[in-house]
Amino acid sequence: MDIKTSNIIITGASSGIGLATAKAAIKRGARVALVARRENRLNALVADLGPNALAFPCDVTKPAQIRNAIDKIIAAFGRIDVLINNAGRGFYAPVEEIDIAAYRALLDLNTIAPLAMMQAVLPQMRSPGSGAIVNVSSGATFGILPGAAAYTSSKSALNMLSDVARTELADINIAVSTIYPFVTDTEFYGSVQEGEAAAETELRNVGSAIHSPDRVADKILGLIRSGERQDDLVPKAFGGTLEA
Questions:
Q1: Is 56 helix (H, G, I), strand (E, B) or coil?
Q2: What is the dihedral of CA 142, 155, 193, 25, to 10 degrees?
């Protein structure tokens, strides 16, 4: 898909990977709908990003807010070509200490919300018979990490949702792809739902393997253009394809 002519929705767009992807897409000529909960932050970003960016405050765990945001985006842009499901949160705790209520909330954001967003845009994508969806997973799903069961299971479920959706939608020219970032220099590790100490330890352990959100943004745009099933920024030593 041509980025230049695309109307793109990005969830979790107020910082990190989402914001970097918005900037990269707009630079290439796309129109971008920034979706996130922080309304003031979104409005400030739109003022900086220019006329090809619009803010749509939305909590993607709330179905009514999703429907309202999608209706407004279609009214503003006329159509939706691309959905990037980026909103998510970390969670670190041993299995026996995982709080069940907190885990349900994590699944709601990391797994169910991307599914709800896909369901919300697919009817509109079916009409022209084209579209692209990129789900932002995690390179942590490539391994078995003590303390990461809650987080990696939520993202592993997203991986399967992506792959099955890709198979189901291939005949109508809607490409569903998955990106697997590694440890990224964003607010993610400072805003984990549980286990801040474990998150800090992970950051120390990977050292120079940390990459910028701009690198993830480039990979996401590459998947939109190519329609490939997946890409990653995971070093080979951790099970990915990255040489260094």
A1: strand
A2: 100
Residue with tokens 């898909």: 1
Token reading at 235: 């070093």
Domain spans of the chain? 3-226
Q: What is the pLDDT of residues 120-170, one digit of tens each?
A: 999 999 988 899 999 999 999 999 999 999 999 999 999 999 999 999 999
Q: At what angle do helices 16-27 and 39-49 cross, to 10 degrees?
A: 30
Catalytic residue among 103, 151, 180, 189: 151
Strands across the sheet with 174-180, in order? 53-57, 31-36, 7-11, 82-85, 131-136, 174-180, 230-232
Closest CA to 159 of 180, 133, 145: 180
Q: For residue 142, how many other CB atoms are within 10 A of its CB?
A: 16
CA 234 to chain centre: 16
pTM of the model: 0.91
92 is catalytic: no
Architecture of domain 3-226: 3-Layer(aba) Sandwich (3.40)
Distance CA 169, CA 152 (A): 25
Q: Which residues pair with 55 in a beta bridge?
A: 34
